[in-house]
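Page 47, continued from p. 46.
Same chain as before, 341 aa.
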Amino acid sequence: MKLLSITVPCYNSEDYMKKCIDSLLPGGEDVEILIVNDGSRDGTAQIAEEYAAAYPTIVKAIHQENGGHGAAVNTGLENASGLFFKVVDSDDWVKEEAYRRILEVLTELTAGGEVLDMLIANYVYEKEGERRKKVIRYRHVLPEERIFTWKDVHHFHKGQYILMHSAIFRTKLLKECGLKLPEHTFYVDNLFVFEPLPYVKKMYYLDVNFYRYYIGRADQSVNEQVMIGRIDQQLKVNYLMMDYLVEKKQSIYQNRKLKNYMLNYLDIITTVSSIMLIRSGTEENLEKKEALWEYIRQKDRFIFFRLRYGLLGSCTNLPGRGGRKITVDGYKLCQKIFKFN
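Result:
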């Protein structure tokens, strides 16, 4: 059995996927690299087959009809044989020194008989044109280099949440919790790191800059104009997260720190949805914003009041055109300060 399964979802990725895969190969025989070609129409399939032929004990090429990022992750998970599971998008890459350290830690913990549910490491925004790279760390939030539980977790700052880039899950946990991401939907990475959390008991944080998250392509899903164009998919994820939190409320609420983390994460996603709907400037999308908040209110009054009258909810629901202008100006200021996309 392999130590770590890494799924690389690929769609028309011929221009950049080699850099990604080459960064994963130093894992050697401890790792299986599952290249999932999600119905690409360029040379992605051929490149995947070339790597599988060159590294038959490490790389596996899987081809499927186009189903979107979520479908590719689902396929990777279905085919994963490693003890742990990681997703690395085809336009991103990992840093070798940090990668080797992570494999060492996973090996040590496994050999010692520890059941680890999630390992967390730092990720770096590789933003085109930015000389200084922004690193998302979890110092002072998560205990370092030891097994810990939710009771040991401190307060997360805004923008410091655990994303797909920073998380490595135990494969069996993902399968047992029934994780299945929706197809033909962007932004499902939020569900990937949200739904398994009630099942995560033991965690480990390694303060190394592992994942390099590239931002710069005009067609990227995180590009603001692309996000506005795909706002219905963002909303779909938002609604699913809300539904899941309500569905699992009984078990989640037994753990105060887990409850607060998941509520705050939902708060961030709802804020993103609200701001993109405001930024679009259309009456139709303003109505969708009202519908989102009304859905949350009807679904769970406690969650509604927590989100709506918190700092972010108050800022994204200022009344009238003037209120929306203040919201957008505040968002632009945060963009400059925190340098997010």
